[in-house]
Amino acid sequence: MNSEEPFIDKMIRWMKHDVKVCMDNDAYVGAMKLMMNDISALAGFYAGRNTPKPSPPITDEIEFMNFFDNYFKVLNALPHSIILKPVQGMKVINLIYTHFRCGLIHEHLMKNGTAIDKRGDNEYLYLTQGGITININCLYNDYLKTLEEYYSDVKNKNKLNVQENFIKRAEYLGAYQPYI
Fold this sequence. Notes:
Blueprint: H1 7-24, H2 28-47, H3 60-71, H4 73-76, H5 80-83, H6 92-107, E1 114-117, E2 125-128, E3 131-135, H7 136-155, H8 160-173
Parallel strand pairs: 1-3
Antiparallel strand pairs: 2-3
Helix pairs in contact: 1-2, 1-7, 2-3, 2-6, 2-8, 3-6, 7-8
């Protein structure tokens, strides 16, 4: 392992920096894409996955949901009438996964019925006819809190399972090998 900076420190620093650059330059789709990618990556660390894909019955979506449920406190604190309301036949959290995470990561396009907006900092998301609009500022603030809490959990000796899972995934990915 590189002795100058632990991998977890480096990873969280990179994530914060890259999304901040996008936010500071009004590149909101880029920021959303990076945040969805980061959440997906952290979900694999949180699960301790040491395979290329999750093993059934676990899926990428389930890993994403587990991480989201445990760390996105502000979104999860919204009234259940919003979070559990079916939109396009899915709960809001599932819509975030399929329409934002999958859409942006795989197709570079948010799927039909979803959008991002920057209307102040009050409402996290807006239910629209046939979809949702996420307030990018609210998601970004929740994302930063999530990174801090996850980082703290990985470093916390009392959260051994989180720490062990992080190390297991990092070792599988070769994170502790020297950089060229």
